[in-house]
Amino acid sequence: MINIGRTFRSSYAMIFIYLAVSLISLVSGCPEEALSPCSCRLIGNKANDVTCTDVTDINPLQKSLSKMNDLPIQTLRIIDSSVIYLPSTLFEGLSIEKMHLINSTFMDLSDSEVAFAGLENSLRSLIIQRCRVYNGWTWAELKNLKSLTWFKTLKSGLDIIDSDIEDIAGLNLEIVELTQDTVSYVDEKAFSHFKNLNVLSLKANQISDVKRSMFPNPASKLSQINLSYNQIEELPDDIFTNMPSLVSLILSGNKILTIEQPVFSPVWKQLKKVDLSDNPLRCDCRMKWVAQARFPRTTYGECDEPPKLSEKSIDELKVDDLTYC
Q1: Each residue of 18-27: pLDDT tens digit?
Q2: How far apart are CA 12 and CA 23, in angstroms?
Q3: What pTM, to 2 d.p., does this model score?
């Protein structure tokens, strides 16, 4: 016997699911009309991934993005483009979670005092990679991005980190990566008020001088510091004090000669990773304390001197190896 009630309920449920899926597609799917110079693809049923390439005229870009009004964009990429600036009206009505500016040039970042207006409540990640802003840009242009948690620059013309980086200290930044540039100067209090900072990377720059005052004190949430491939020869004795959450320390590719106990002992037992590879380490009596301590689970680094210990991994050192002074 056919159960008419059950069949009806099943059909009703199928219709409801079909309508729900259709509604989701209408609300969050890519527009059907052409988006040139941009393209769009749907990620699941939740958000869109939009890529805009070879933009030289801001008007087609603005027209294209206007078709995405009220549609969630997970990632917007602007690639291989050259425009005068990103106008303050460009992102009106848009909800964008991640923004990538890649291999592009601008005269100015914006035509107003703040950049990326309209994205204050949605933008969580901003990556500027291999870009050039001919008239320069200031940290203050980013100060209204109150939802921003991750900011990264890479090969984008940054040469100093001055005191004006304080303009974005009030944001909820958890990850700051200013990498592969020519930074040679970092203000002595540069990141001291970045209280939510979890990861700081200044790798592949030209930094030679670092101070404890550059970091929050206490640095309660700071778990990773990456200063690799700079010009650092020495670290101050207090550099890692009051860093209870630090578990990853990457110092490879510098000019560090030894692992001094006053410098490293405040965090040595809590570290899970330490990378001192590509440093001219002199494995002598100053490092006896290291051989007596527990090495972090992941340890990289090799002796450069004396000759008998050359290329020996530091986590294989024994106290008897370190008689040379």
Answers
A1: 333 333 444 4
A2: 16
A3: 0.90
